[in-house]
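[09:14] KT: can someone run the structure on this one? pasting the chain below
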Amino acid sequence: MLKSRLKRWLVHIRRRVPPGLRLVLGLLLIVGGVFGFLPVLGFWMIPLGVMVAALDVRPLWARLKGPRDGGTG
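[09:31] RB: done, structure tokens below
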């Protein structure tokens, strides 16, 4: 149940939040999670931030690596 709710939430973020802002949001969640001992913030923010940032990092990494050689040559 928790896994399906998390997946729906990530799909919602992917559709509604612009790509550059997703990375910033993920990094802010990670930084906020570092201060998890505070009442409002929590350690739960770290893995959530990693998941949100990963939505942008994977496509960016693929672009940086460039097109793959399809074995033609």
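[09:33] KT: thanks! Helices lie at 2-16, 19-34, 45-65.
[09:34] RB: yep, looked fine to me
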